[in-house]
From TrEMBL:
This is Transcriptional regulator. PROSITE patterns: HTH_GNTR (PS50949). The keyword Chloroplast does not apply. GO terms for molecular function: DNA binding; DNA-binding transcription factor activity. The lineage of its organism: Bacteria, Pseudomonadati, Pseudomonadota, Betaproteobacteria, Burkholderiales.
């Protein structure tokens, strides 16, 4: 007979797992700005009850990764370009700090892991019909492996939070097969970052990640205005 003492821990584990799965959906860009999310449909897709999904949505609303509309539905926020620009500038600083710190902790295992991820990213980009979800996943895992290696959990949580807020548009160029993807621009930035980490050069690592973030920002800000709120819209974001 199963002890009832295990029940609260099991619920906590399920809630944490559900939250992580929904975070991955946001990070991956499987949902777009303005898209409404159904608790019931999300629960069915994840194979869980509605309670952990409802709890996860509440957490993500508190983190500004989701928002509640006037009719009480939950949707992915639509950011203004001004907010996206502000978040990008913050990312320059905190992700730059993370990779600079990681340059002092980059052991052979980390270097091998991120090199293999970047090689896989390059291979996927070279395919005639690239798996866009795999591109996004590899890019996110590459970055987060380095940020975790910095050994600064508070900083890592801040980075996670910002990626959640901009996840639906963060990797838009990867999902759309843009010229940047075909030319493997991100792969080149990643190689520069790997080289800097291997050589223990914090400033080189910082420059590489800023170039990576900035290149994606420039592309989206200039070519995808439909992703953002109109300049005169005072709504969310």
């Amino acid at each position: 007979m199963k002890s009832t003492i295990d029940a609260p821990a099991s619920r906590q584990t399920l809630s944490a797992s559900t939250l992580e799965q929904i975070k991955q959906i946001l990070w991956s860009g499987k949902v777009m700005p303005g898209e409404q999310l159904s608790i019931r449909k999300t629960a069915e897709a994840l194979g869980v009850s509605m309670m952990p999904v409802r709890d996860a949505f509440s957490r993500l609303v508190a983190d500004h990764a989701l928002e509640v509309t006037p009719n009480r539905s939950v949707r992915v926020p639509v950011l203004s370009l001004q907010t996206f620009t502000e978040i990008t500038r913050i990312r320059f600083e905190i992700e730059g700090m993370a990779v600079a710190e990681a340059a002092g902790h980059a052991n052979p295992d980390l270097l091998q892991t991120i090199r293999e991820m970047n090689d896989a990213l390059s291979l996927e980009m070279s395919k005639e019909q690239a798996d866009t979800q795999e591109l996004v996943s590899l890019n996110q895992r590459f970055h987060f492996a380095i940020y975790e290696a910095a050994g600064m959990p508070v900083l890592f949580q801040m980075i996670e939070s910002l990626w959640l807020r901009i996840g639906p548009i963060l990797n838009y160029d990867l999902r759309q097969g843009s010229p940047r993807t075909r030319e493997q621009v991100a792969v080149r930035h990643h190689r520069a970052l790997i080289d800097a980490l291997q050589q223990g050069e914090p400033e080189g690592a910082r420059r590489a990640v800023v170039a990576d973030i900035g290149g994606a920002y420039d592309y989206m800000a200039a070519r995808t205005p439909s992703l953002f709120l109109p300049p005169d819209d005072r709504g969310a974001g």
